[in-house]
Every structure is written in structure tokens, then in C-alpha cells.
Amino acid sequence: MELYVQFIQSQKKDVLTKRQYKFLADDAITSGSDYDQDANPLEGYKIKERRLQGQNRYKRRLLSAKHTMRRKFNFNWDRMVIRFRRFYNKIKQLVTLKQPYTFSPDGSMKMLWDLLCLLLVIYEMITIPLLISFEIELSQAFSRVSTAMFVFDILLNFNTGVYLEGKLNMERKEIFKDYISFWFWIDFISTFPYDIIMDESLLKFLRFVKVLKLVRLAKLKKIIDKFDEVLSMRPGVAAIVNFCKLFFFVLFFAHILGCIFHYLAQQEPSDDSWLGDIYFADWSIRYVNSLYWGIATMTTVGYGDISPQTPQERFIGIVLLLIACGGFAFTMNSIGFALQEIDGQNKLKKEKINGINRFMKKAGISNQLQNRIRRYIEFVMESKSLVLQDLTNQVQIELANDLRKQVNGKLLGYCDILLKNHSQQFLIEVVLPSMKERVYNPEEVIFDEFDFQQNYDMFIIKTGLVDIFYKKTGIVVDQKRRNEYFGEINLQVQGVLISQAYFKFIKTNFKKVQRNFKILHKTHKDEFTIYNSII
């Protein structure tokens, strides 16, 4: 024990805090000769914590306040430089174009542009039916600006990479072939400036030509699906979003039906059409009545207060009613699928839990242990933990390496002890591939100070909170939070451990650096020399 304390005090870098130095140097605390090996470590930790809670309440509060103030005002310059460099690289990546000077379809700027185009498409699909049916005047300046933006979108699509057979292709030749095969013609027909080329004497015909702009609705679903993939919402939130999309679909469908029915009434004399007394009323009043008829017809309610009067209106009403029934049936079917998907997930959970319950009853397991196992299985099923290894095993080697660099590299940026003492090449080639992800559950002991057969690793916390405590007395040495690390001494001194880590919050993810760190150093002679100098 004295050799270990002497080694800690001889370190060139501050590996431990002052509280940990004081804890290690205290012979009364570190003496563990009377430790009961058969005791439950977690229960002992809880009993000691409750026993000392009243005695050390003021002392712990004072230590916690000092520890919090020290963390609050401790400015880590190296970490700020790393964050600034990461931010600068992101901005540089967005601004700088690489050969063949094309844009990524998943870039932030491209996503913002697609969002703007989505809003313009929604605006046009609402205003164009109003313009044709109610003959309202819209801003010509805004119309020309939107046309110019869609023309720019066509040029941008010729310079945006595409996914072919699951791989990103940035070559202009392949981009041109893919875009010109289908989507270019959709964009060209819906973007062509008909109002600039045609004569003003054909104003009435020009309104009908603008219906071609609604062809762009075919691209609306593509953009929405792209945002759904990027957002990757939870199942409950995704179900609510799907309901909202179906609601707006019903509203838009009723909007189209109402505009068609109103346009037909405008072609009839005022005494014969269904408009009646509101034939010459303001367009907003006529629109509300038309939308009311469209929703009542689509939902097959049909109150009868608004009904077609002439044979022409009745014939168009039959056609619209058949179309509305099909659209409403599609909506109800989509809602049923969404509810069935949610219910199917709950049903699958119940089936698994029932199977586990039957097995435990046949095995004669006690009720207390059954409840603990059942709660643990429910926690695992609800968390749906997916570690990095599960994802890298399903993709190609090149994609797996890029994924490890981005995921592990962000966490490694918070590990000062590795960044200060090793080169960037060594960290990328050796340390990043050796990092593995682990998931721990509530009240689970990460490592035990008296378990000499356990392989101890260095841990970097991704999410959660960890208590590092001495098992015999229950004294908490330190608390580790997100992006902090512990167990770094295991990379330098193997088999020496004088404290225990206990997970406190609901769930946590760790990135561990494997214990064969010294073996990995030998493949890089310069790094091995630095490693020996630290020791």
C-alpha cells in the first residue's frame, strides 16, 4: 500500500484530485485486513452510507460545496482548445468543397435548404387551388422569388451526391444520370415560368396552367421521409407525428374538394348553384362553406345543409364523393397500422415476460428473486440499448472505422491524460479501435477492489453518474459524471486497485480502453518511450 501511495505521489500529471490523495494517504482508511469477503458489497455500501449519513451530513455538505466550487471555476484550457478546433473543423467542412466539388445530400446546409423548399411547396399547394377557384390576387414578387429558388434547387440537385446501392456517390456523371432519369422532369414541369412567357390576355387559362406546379407534391413525401430518418424519433413521438401528418392530409384533401366544388358553383347562375345567398359574399365566407362541405363529404357524414342543386353539380359531387371515400379509407387504414404497430410492441414485451415467468415458476425460484429478474428484464426491454459494436458488425469495414472515429473520437477529446502524452496518430490507429462500449444498469458494481481476478480497464462515461467509494467504510471518494473518466491508473499499474465504482443513476454507457494498453504501445516505439517516462 505504501508503494502504491508513493507511486501516485510521484506522478508528473495530476491523475487524482486532492480528496483522492488524502484518501490514499490515510492508513486508517486503506487498511483492509478485517474486511469480510462474504459480505454483499452493494448492501454493505448502502448500510454504511445510511449509518454515516447523520454523522457526516455537515462534513459531506462542506466537502461537496468545495468540490463543486473547484469544478465550477477550474478552467481547462486544453479542453477548450479541443472544442474550438472541433467547431472550426465543422465550419471548414461546411464551407470548403472537395473534388469533384459536389455537396453531400446529408449535410446541414442541404437539410436547411430542403426544409425551405418544403415550406414553399406547402405554401403553393394551399394557394394555387385558392387562386384558381376564388380568383384571389397573390403577390407576384413572392411568386417570382419562389420560382427563382426552385430553379436554383434544380441546379443544386445536379451538384448533390446520390446514394446508389447503399453507397454515397459524388461523381457528376452518376449524379446526372440519376437525377435526369425521373426527378428532373418533375422539377422542370413544376418550375417552368409559365406566367412570364404567356400573354396576359390568357389570364384565365394561365390559372389552370398553374395546376402543373402541384406536380411537385410528388417530391413532398421524399423530403418528409428524409427528415423522419434524420430526426429518428422515439416510437411514441413518431406515432403522434404520423397522426399529425394524417390530419393535415385529410385537411388538404378537403381543401382540394372544396375548391373544386366552389369553382363548379361559380360557373352556374347565382340562383341555381349551391352557393345561393353567399354567391357574392367575401371569398373567405365562401371558402369556409366549401371547406365545410369537403370535410363532411370526405368523412361520409353528409349533414345535407349544403348539397348540389344542378345536374352538373350532382355529377361532380358523385365523382368527388368516390374520391373522398378512397382518401378517407386510406387515412383510416394508416391510423390502424400506426396503432397496430404500437400495440404489437407492447404485445411482444408481454409475451417475453410471460415466457420468463413460466420458466421461473417451473424452476421453483423464490418470489423475491422473480420480481428482481422481472424488473430487470423490463428495464432492458424499455431501454433498447444499442452499443457501438452492434452497429459496426452490420456495416462495411470502411464505414465501421469512420463510425468509430466519430463516436469514440468525441469522447477521447475529454481524456486529458491521453491527449497530453500521446500523438494524434497513435490515438487514431491504436486507442480508438481498442475502445469498447458497455452498458451498466442501476445499482450495479462496475469493479470491486478485492476481486483480483477481474480485468480492470479505463472508463470514459458517455451518460450517467458513477460513485467511486471505499467498500469497508462506505465513504464516497469521488463522483464521475458525463464525459469524465476513471480507472486511468489501470493503464499504467496492473492489478492494483484500492476503491470500488458503483453506478448510481438509471442507466449509463461507458467507453472502455482495454487493459492491454502496454502491449499496444510496443508497436509504436516513440509512444512506448513516452509511456515508460510517465511510469
Can you give keywords for this protein?
Jelly Rolls, alpha+beta, disordered C terminus, four-stranded antiparallel sheet, 23 helices, ion transport, 535 residues, disordered N terminus
Compact overview of the structure:
The chain is α+β, with helices and mostly antiparallel strands. Helix content is 61%, strand content 8%.
What does this structure look like?
It is found in: Membrane. This is Cyclic nucleotide-binding domain-containing protein. It comes from Paramecium tetraurelia. This protein has 535 residues and is α+β, with helices and mostly antiparallel strands. The chain has helices at 2-9, 18-25, 27-30, 41-51, 57-73, 77-95, 108-134, 140-157, 172-181, 183-191, 194-197, 203-209, 217-231, 235-266, 283-298, 311-362, 367-383, 388-392, 397-412, 416-421, 424-434, 517-521, 525-534, and strands at residues 162-164, 167-169, 435-440, 445-447, 458-463, 466-469, 476-480, 485-486, 500-503, 508-513. A four-stranded antiparallel β-sheet has the order 3-10-5-8. Strands 4-9-6-7 form a four-stranded antiparallel β-sheet. A two-stranded antiparallel sheet has the order 1-2. The longest helix is centred in the middle third of the chain and has 52 residues, at 311-362.
Give the secondary structure arrangement, pairings included.
Blueprint: H1 2-9, H2 18-25, H3 27-30, H4 41-51, H5 57-73, H6 77-95, H7 108-134, H8 140-157, E1 162-164, E2 167-169, H9 172-181, H10 183-191, H11 194-197, H12 203-209, H13 217-231, H14 235-266, H15 283-298, H16 311-362, H17 367-383, H18 388-392, H19 397-412, H20 416-421, H21 424-434, E3 435-440, E4 445-447, E5 458-463, E6 466-469, E7 476-480, E8 485-486, E9 500-503, E10 508-513, H22 517-521, H23 525-534
Antiparallel strand pairs: 1-2, 3-10, 4-9, 5-8, 5-10, 6-7, 6-9
